[in-house]
Amino acid sequence: MTDATLPADNPLAQPSSLPYQLPDFAAIGTEHLRPAIDAGLAQQRAEWEAVASSTEPPTVTNTLDALERSGQLLQRVEAVFGTLVSSAGTDELRAIESEYAPVLAAHQDAFWLDERIYTRLTQVQAAGVAEEETAWVLQRYLTDFVRAGILLDEDAKATLRALNGQITALETEFAQLVVAGMEAAAVHVTDPDLLAGLADDAVSALAQAAADRGRSGHLVTFQLPTGQALLAQAADRRLREQVFTASVARGTGVDPGSDTRALVVALAAKRAERARLLGYEHHASYVAEGGTAKTTEAINAMLGRLAPPAVRNARAEGAELVEALTADQPGAELAGWDWAYYADRVRQQRYAVDEAALRPYLELDRVIHDGVFYAATRLYGLTFTERADLVGYADGVRVWEVFEADGTGLGLFVGDYYAREGKRGGAWMHNLVDAAGLLDRRAVVVNNLNITRPAAGQPTLLTWDEVITAFHEFGHALHGLFAAGRYPSVSGTNVPRDFVEFPSQVNEMWAWHPEVIASFARHHQTGQVLPGDTLDRLRDSQSYGAGFATTEYLAAAMLDQAWHQLTPEQVPTDAAAVEEFEAQTLAALGLDYPLVPPRYRTTYFNHTFGGGYDAGYYSYIWSEVLDADTVEWFRQEAARDGDGGLNRAAGSRFRQALLSRGYTRDPLASYCDLRGRDAAIDPLLKRRGLD
After folding, report:
1. What is the distance between the alpha carbons of residues 442 and 461, in angstroms, rounded to a whole number?
2. What is the pLDDT of residues 626-635, one digit of tens each?
3. Final residue before a domain boundary, out of 234, 257, 280
4. Kind of pairing, strands 187-189 and 218-220?
5. Are residues 129 and 84 in the same domain?
């Protein structure tokens, strides 16, 4: 199909008639995707051509607004397709993804390298734009055109187009192989004795995972990070070693079908070559300029400041774990697969907090309804009504309608909490519909977790980390739901990567709030509230393990920077050198503590090689500076109001100053509006024990 015509019986041909334009997943089949993508591409190209070739004097309405209105069919199908391939992927969907990745990259190049559109936008700016948001968005366009290569000569543009297509294809393949690697690494347990120490519901879930894949016994499926939840629970050291070893070996060629090393060196080389073509020292400097950090020097300085005390703290924690291990097994040497188990043991002894004993108080439905939603109601006046009549894209996906305090509909929240075959690992938020005043649209947002589904009739009991993740991802959801700007391109979470994690990290604080915990932390059988002394001990234990957590994170963040601060000549040419480069980098940075491997090793680092966080994984701790300082602001509000900051006045201020703004202005200016100053780093250092 080469024109914008799409048969009327294709459910993507028109905006969905469901509430808030929720895609009609029940009607959409794989056969509808290719025609809709083709038609969407053609339609948007025609819309761009109409702007570029217009003989009318350029104005905000006929140029900027027209560009922002373009591509609505393509946006619909990309939202649907992206959701399906990431959350319910099949071989057919992945084949379509691979086929269209370079096509979509070329489509973007057709826009960003069109000098006619760039010229019209410069003329709009020269004529003067009074409205603040419009002027900001216009400047963003012009800056992005330059960063995309509009000022290059034609030969350089041709090279750039080729590089963009190659990079996109490599990123797509890497992300697919990471999913394949997780599935290949799954540990099949046939000896039930190996499951000693696991709670009954956890054992049942592992049996269900095996049955779901047509296998007997029990199956330990994997999440994306190096650390797996089972490692903290499994008393049998043999099982811990097997799971840990399989985890860190992903992508290294142990399973030839998911070896990512050749893709890593190819991606690093292509990105370095593109950065040089665009006039940058390396890819990391290109990425930093587009964020709030601005320079790699600023990023390196922050990460370098944090690394030595983090490793020092991790080594001190490790010394304690050696004592705990040798008390069990005299003469044994502590290994990476022992860390989580004995850290949990030490935490129990020191704070009398048993993670396994907490789980009966952390049932998924109650955590969401009486925790995540409860905090949003107290802070922002939101209410939530589950819409069983609205169908998700896979079994277990649920939809809630979100209402303002006055009953006005705000949007839809979609919860996809369970792991399934074909779903990529980790947790994330994405939009099915962006809120935008220009298009009169409200947001439809999705939260994705990867909780092991329990056996039929059994409750879904969470770890405390999974509770924190649910609050974190809902912070992203609020950022999308509250978007109040005019233009879709700067709506909600469409902000710089080193700012996007800030609202989600702030939202984690409410999981610890006494009133919120009292609401959701109740025994799933008796309804008993989590005992107050247990809550106090849990809170006291919050900072335990900060050395490990900070070290594993920094190792990944600095590996990301190391790969992307290479020039084209410095990138290894041999795929077999990937592990050597990783080891040498960690040693040079003082992060080569073998008991604490990177949160993501290079070969399964989907954030940076397949997930859009290339040279941007530093964003989490960069944003955490703002987060920790904002928590202090809420505490100051609490001192005045006496309710821990969990009140509508504080919530409304945070929503107005930050959550609703999206990228309609400089995010750091919005932050200064809230705090009256720039963020201070001291609260972060104190939180992580680095002060």
Report:
1. 33
2. 999 999 999 8
3. 257
4. antiparallel
5. yes
Q: What pLDDT, on the 0 to 100 scale, is given for residue 470?
A: 98
Contact (CB, 8 A) for 601 and 261: no
Structural domain total, the chain: 3
User: Do strands 398-403 and 409-418 pair parallel, antiparallel, or not at all (unpaired)?
Assistant: antiparallel
Rounded to the nearest 10 degrees, how much is the dihedral formed by the CA atoms of 132, 135, 138, 144?
A: -80
**What letter does residue 378 receive in the DSSP assignment?**
H
- Give the chain's length: 691
Q: Is residue 323 part of a domain?
A: no
- Whether 66 and 119 share a structural domain: yes
In this structure, the number of other CB atoms found within 10 A of the CB of residue 486 comes to 17
Ranges of residues in the chain with a pLDDT under 50 are: 1-3
Q: What is the pLDDT of residue 504?
A: 97
Distance CA 62, CA 64 (A): 7
For residues 654 and 607, what is the distance between their CA atoms, to the nearest angstrom? 28
3-class DSSP assignment, residue 315: helix
- In-domain check, residue 635: no
pLDDT at 541: 87
- The reported pLDDT for the residue numbered 536 is 85
For residues 81 and 33, is the Cβ–Cβ distance under 8 A? yes
Outline where DSSP puts E strands in 190-289. 218-220
CA-based max dimension of the chain: 84
Catalytic residue set: 473
* Angstrom distance (rounded) from CA 139 to CA 159: 26
DSSP letter assigned to residue 192: G
Domain-ending residue, one of 213, 241, 257? 257
| C-alpha pair distances (Å), 157 with each of 44, 302, 504 | 21, 35, 38
Same domain, 397 and 520: yes
Same domain, 194 and 141: no
Confidence at residue 2, expressed as pLDDT on a 0 to 100 scale: 40
Domain residue limits at 200:
179-257
